[in-house]
Amino acid sequence: MRTHDDIRLREAGLPDTDLGPVLAEQADPLLFATVSGAHLYGFPSQDSDVDLRGVHLLPLDALVGLREPDETRSRMWVRDGIEMDLVTHDLRKFVRLMLRRNGYVLEQLLSPLVVHTSDAHAELVALAPDVLTSHHAHHYRGFATTQERLFEKTGELKPLLYAFRVLLTGIHLMRSGEVQAHLPSLIGLVDAPAYLPDLVAAKAGAEHGAADVEHARVADDLARLHALLDAAQADSGLPDAPAAYDALHDLVVRVRLER
Predict the structure, then answer these.
(1) How many CB atoms lie within 10 A of CB 82?
(2) pLDDT digit string, tens, across residues 177-203
(3) What is the average pLDDT across 25-30?
(4) pLDDT digit string (tens) for 29-80?
(5) How many CA atoms does the CB half-sphere of 78 hold within 13 Å?
(6) For residues 228 and 226, what is the distance between their CA atoms, to the nearest angstrom?
(7) In sequence order, what DSSP letters do the residues of 137-178 get, joined into one string?
(8) Distance between CA 186 and CA 177 in Å, rounded?
(9) Residue 41: how many CB atoms within 10 A of its CB?
């Protein structure tokens, strides 16, 4: 297991707990594990859980035999009083998700909050730009709409921040070709509402607190960002289809055979 960047993890608000033993207990080798969720997005609360996401590698006989392979695994546990969950996909499934304009898995892959890495992880990261397309805007548009509806139903701050975050991520991606999931960084890159830093600060107190906002103003700002995402997609220089299919196929085969 390679050394992860403890300083960066602490700066992101991660609890001071050793994740190594949990990762070492996994049934099949991990190619990478990163931190996702609120810590990656830049608005963790005092009581936020730790979301770990990654890729495991099934043995060859699990894929060529008669039994259905266990391609996705999920585990939840509490360590040092902190609730954690780890979700991993087999390499083949993860790569298929990468090729389906799935911004969520790309954010996991490219997360700077790395707790375990490998040569295969580095290769996947290097190929990530070649799977980006203008159609990734659909992922962020749909995710934002879901979170807006949840905010309207609950009045909680968390889904509102998620809605703003994914819209800003989508706009920046369409304009620059960069996957940036960190909301405080996005505020400086996209024309974001001036009150967003205050909302980020408010969420630090509680994971499920109410949003103290003017709902009409928020609705107008979200509608404006939707329009910006539409325009950014229309003007994007990103291609219509991923270019990395063959390279990713070769990687999946080679990594599997090497193990």
Answers:
(1) 15
(2) 999 999 999 999 999 999 999 999 998
(3) 84
(4) 999 999 999 999 999 988 788 899 999 999 988 888 888 888 999 988 887 7
(5) 3
(6) 5
(7) HHHHHHHHHHHHHHHHHH-BHHHHHHHHHHHHHHHHHHHHS-
(8) 14
(9) 21
- 6-131+243-258 in CATH: which number? 3.30.460.10
Q: Three-state DSSP class for 98?
A: helix
81 CB contacts (<8 Å, ≥6 apart)? none
Is pLDDT at 115 greater than 60 in this prediction? Answer: yes
DSSP codes of every residue in 12-72: TT--S---HHHHHT-SS-EEEEEEEHHHHHT---TT--EEEEEEE---HHHHHSSSPP--E
Q: Extract the tokens encoding 109.
A: 């892959």
As a three-state string, the secondary structure of 169-237 is HHHHHHHHCCCCCCHHHHHCCCCCCCCHHHHHHHHCCCCCCECCCCHHHHHHHHHHHHHHHHHHHHHCC
**Residue ranges of the chain assigned to CATH 3.30.460.10:** 6-131+243-258
Tell me the C-alpha distance between 39 and 203, whole Å.
Answer: 12
DSSP-assigned letter for residue 85: E
